[in-house]
Design a protein that fits this description.
It contains 15 helices and eleven strands. The protein has about 375 residues and is of the alpha/beta class. It has four domains: about 170 residues, Alpha-Beta Complex (2-enoyl-CoA Hydratase, Chain A, domain 1), CATH 3.90.226; about 55 residues, no CATH class; about 35 residues; about 55 residues. The termini are far apart. It comes from Clostridium magnum DSM 2767.
């Protein structure tokens, strides 16, 4: 991962050679943009420790970072003040701050010389600059322009915690991710930590003293539990009130007549539809000689499935009787070559009855 350092004063490209010659830390826009062009959208880190400098050169650095297509992580490792602070607000970057670092935001400043017209023009220029700088902070933090401008007017210095609370950074470096240790209770009713109870028991020098101390703890626990009893009673009373508030049918009819009538109409219509469907299903089962079963099923309110089972049962009995009659006719006609047909005690389906009829017919005709 490539690291870009923004250290020292923010200066213009044309002045960089002087700072390099004097070996004074400084950063110009070209220092940043040239690296961004070479790394080909790879992940980069930008380390900031700068007191600020030229606003317009800061703009150029901010925009170069904002246009970068790769992942950007900014780390404030010392100071991010003035122009360096708004550089850290690049919208496409994740910004983190060391707990041993600071941020400062303020209004812009400059020098001017001349008549009052020049002073008026300079003042107007600074106001525009302040409004422009404020946009970087509002875009990053989500704070209103009014809130940010108030901080700038006051020249606000921020710790890492304060910067995070304002939304100017995404996190603090080296923060522990370990969950805080929970304090488990030996007796919840006593609300005492294990360490306190164990320390108390360790003071006991004899078994009897230990028993007495444990008994005292139990007495306190039960006393505490009894004091909490009204809370339980209140919960029961509240549930009782909720049950009493349930609306019965008569209250619904009295207080909400329109709703009651609509429900009755809907239920009645659904019942009529279901009844018509039931009768049609039964009529579809109609067969010659079984009209009485159809009519009986409709009158009793039987389902189509039950009527169908009654029809199968009747047909089975009719088929068995026909077999018995055929067998008796064969005996009466002295047809000795008619093989006996076993009549099962129970058959479950219409198909069983039909199979018996076919078997009997084949016996009478000699199997032809």
């Amino acid at each position: 991962m490539k690291i870009i350092n923004i250290k020292g004063r923010i200066i213009g490209n044309g002045s960089k050679w002087i700072y390099d010659w004097l070996d004074i830390p400084a950063t110009c826009p070209k220092d940043v943009s040239s690296v961004l062009q070479d790394v080909n959208n790879e992940d980069i880190e930008i380390h900031i420790n700068s007191g600020g400098g030229s606003v317009y050169d800061g703009y150029e650095i901010y925009n170069a970072i904002a246009e970068y297509k790769g992942n950007v992580t900014i780390k404030i490792v010392g100071l991010a003040a003035s122009a360096a602070s708004f550089i850290s607000q690049a919208p496409n970057a994740k910004c983190y701050m060391s707990p041993l670092a600071e941020m400062m935001i303020h209004n812009s400043s400059t020098y001017a010389e001349g008549q009052h017209q020049i002073m008026d023009s300079t003042s107007q220029m600074l106001q525009v600059t302040d409004a422009t700088i404020a946009k970087a902070y509002t875009l990053k933090s989500g704070k209103s322009d009014k809130e940010i401008r108030a901080l700038m007017e006051a020249e606000t210095w921020l710790t890492s915690e304060q910067a995070k609370e304002l939304g100017l950074i995404d996190g603090i470096l080296f923060e522990s991710k370990t969950e805080p240790k929970q304090s488990y209770k030996l007796y919840n009713a006593l609300n005492l930590d294990d360490d306190i109870i164990l320390s108390d028991l360790e003071k006991c020098k004899t078994i009897d003293e230990l028993k007495n101390r444990l008994t005292e703890n139990l007495d306190k626990m039960f006393k505490n539990a009894s004091q909490n009893q009204p809370t339980v009673i209140n919960a029961v009373v509240e549930n009782k009130k909720q049950e009493e508030n349930k609306m019965n049918l008569e209250q619904l009819k009295s207080d909400h007549a329109d709703l009651y009538n609509q429900i009755v109409q809907d239920v009645t219509a659904e019942a009529v539809t279901n009844e018509r469907a039931r009768i049609k299903s039964i009529n579809d089962l109609a067969m010659p000689g079984l009209e009485n079963l159809i009519n009986e099923g409709i009158e009793k309110g039987d389902s189509a499935e039950k009527v169908a089972m009654n029809i199968i049962k009747a047909q089975k009995e009719k088929g068995l009787q026909h077999i018995q009659d055929a067998k008796q006719d064969a005996i009466n006609a002295n047809l000795n070559n008619v093989s006996s047909v076993a009549v099962p005690e129970k058959t479950d389906t219409k198909q069983d009855a039909l199979n018996l009829l076919v078997s009997a017919a084949e016996s009478i005709t000699g199997g032809r």
